[in-house]
Amino acid sequence: MRNALSLSKGLIVTTDNSGAIGQKEQDVVNVPDDMTSYFSGRVTLLEQWAAGAEPEAIILHNFSGEEAWNRYVAGIQRLFDEIGIETPKITGSTETNIKTLQSCIGITIIGNFVKELPSATDLQWFTYGKPLVGDQVVAEPEKIANLTMIYRAMQQKLIERIWPVGSKGIAKEIRVLLGDRSFKCDWDMQASAGPSTVILIGIYKEKIQQAQNLFGELLKTIEII
Known about the structure:
Blueprint lengths: L3 E3 L4 E9 L1 E2 L6 E2 L2 H18 L2 E10 L6 H15 L5 E6 L9 E10 L10 E5 L6 H5 L7 H9 L5 E5 L3 H10 L4 E2 L13 E6 L4 H8 L3 E3 L1 E2 L1
Parallel strand pairs: 3-4, 5-6
Antiparallel strand pairs: 1-2, 2-7, 5-7, 8-11, 8-12, 9-11, 10-13
């Protein structure tokens, strides 16, 4: 299970953090705080889906100051508004004793396991989205895997599994899924996908055409050699 902690009673815990990305003067990547929390929350939600779980509660760790809290919450709410489901309850804490020079947050989602997942080797795998990181995420938003499309495909049972790609790149994640096998795809397989701008999608062969019609040209086959 990818970066997910499985607890008793079917609870699944996933988490993501973001540092030096935000509105502070010394941040490396300068973007609105709500964008930072949107993408960090997005990664954490995708990890829930990758584990066959649905979110129940969110814990926000805010190290950017009290004034950033509402902006971070707004970004998380936008994430769930985008896919058309109610935002889970949000709790957490803010560092108020020390003023940090750079932005920093952590987002943890607690979810319930709801879906048994088929073996990765029973599926045909595709990449969806382009590897992007840092300012590239802002520059090429149309190349980012669309969360609404993924959720719709899951609800329609067009796709069986997803697997987010992050800083370790496509090759690393494919090998976690499928073992040490040779394969080819259209992107640089070592490039960072930042906040999971690329998603690996597993599809049964009989549903591939329907999925391609939905996702379009950003859905690219991973060829096992």
